[in-house]
Write a structure and sequence with these properties.
- By secondary structure, the chain is mainly alpha-helical.
- The protein is built from 8 helices and 3 strands.
- The protein has helices spanning 3-15, 20-29, 32-35, 40-52, 78-93, 99-107, 114-136, 152-177; strands at 18-19, 56-60, 72-76.
- It has a 3-stranded antiparallel β-sheet.
- The chain is globular, with a radius of gyration of 20 Å.
Length: 214
C-alpha cells in the first residue's frame, strides 16, 4: 500500500476541490515530504493516475485575474471516496505497515465514526500481539538476542517495535474514547488541516516543479 495515494485523496477531500499545487502545498504543510514519498512528481502523477481510474474528476478552471495560467482542479468521485475510506481503514488496522502509511491513515482517522475508529485500532493492537507471538516462536526474549547470534538483534528490534506500537495505539484508543477530536457525524467543527488559497505555508520547500503550474 502506498502512502501517496491515501495522502493525495485526503488532501483533495478536505478541500472539496483542489488543484495540484494546493495538494502539494498541503502535504508539505503536513511534513509528508519528510516522512513519506510525497514528492512533487509523485503527487502530480498520483492525481493524473487516479483521474484516469475514475477516483477523481477533473475540472478546468479559468485563468486567474492576475493573469496566471488556468489550473486543473480535482474532486473525489463516489468511487474515490470509497477508495479513500478503504485506504484509511487498511492503514489503521495493518500492524505491518510502514510508518508513512500509518501516519497517512491517522491524517484521515476523523473521517470515520468514533466507534469505528476505536474498533479498527483495537484490531491493530490484536494484530501486533499476534505478530509478536509469531516472532517469539523463533526467539525467546528472556534468553537474550545473543542466544541466536547477532541476527537475534533483528528479532529483538521487532519485539520492541511491536510493544511500543501497541502501547501507543492503546493510548490513542483511550484518548478517542475519552472524547478527543471531532469525528464524522458528530456535532462541532472538525479540525481543518489544509491551507486556504493564498495562505502562507511556513514549511514549504520552495523548490519549483513543472507540475506546479498545471
Amino acid at each position: 500500500m502506498s502512502a501517496i495515494r491515501l495522502l493525495v485523496l485526503c488532501a483533495v477531500r478536505q478541500h472539496g476541490r483542489a488543484h495540484g499545487y494546493q495538494v502539494r502545498n498541503d502535504l508539505e504543510y503536513w511534513g509528508a515530504h519528510e516522512w513519506s514519498n510525497a514528492k512533487p512528481g509523485s503527487i502530480y502523477h498520483a492525481l493524473k493516475q487516479m483521474a484516469k481510474q475514475g477516483l477523481l474528476v477533473e475540472h478546468e478552471t479559468a485563468p486567474s485575474a492576475a493573469g496566471g495560467p488556468p489550473r486543473t482542479e480535482y474532486e473525489l468521485t463516489g468511487a474515490g471516496d470509497e477508495e479513500y475510506l478503504a485506504l484509511v481503514r487498511a492503514a489503521l488496522t495493518s500492524y505491518d505497515q510502514r510508518p508513512d502509511v500509518l501516519s497517512a491513515g491517522l491524517g484521515g482517522i476523523v473521517d470515520l465514526g468514533r466507534d469505528e475508529a476505536v474498533a479498527l485500532l483495537k484490531e491493530r493492537v490484536a494484530g501486533l500481539a499476534a505478530w509478536r507471538d509469531s516472532v517469539t516462536t523463533h526467539y525467546l526474549p528472556e534468553a537474550g538476542p545473543e542466544s541466536v547470534g547477532h541476527i537475534g538483534e533483528i528479532m529483538n528490534l521487532w519485539i520492541h517495535s511491536a510493544d511500543a506500537g501497541a502501547e501507543w495505539t492503546r493510548g490513542l484508543i483511550a484518548r478517542i474514547e475519552g472524547g478527543a477530536y471531532t469525528f464524522a457525524g458528530e456535532e462541532g467543527e472538525p479540525f481543518v488541516g489544509v491551507l486556504a488559497e493564498g495562505q502562507e505555508n511556513p514549511y514549504a520547500t520552495g523548490i519549483p516543479d513543472p507540475g506546479d503550474e498545471e
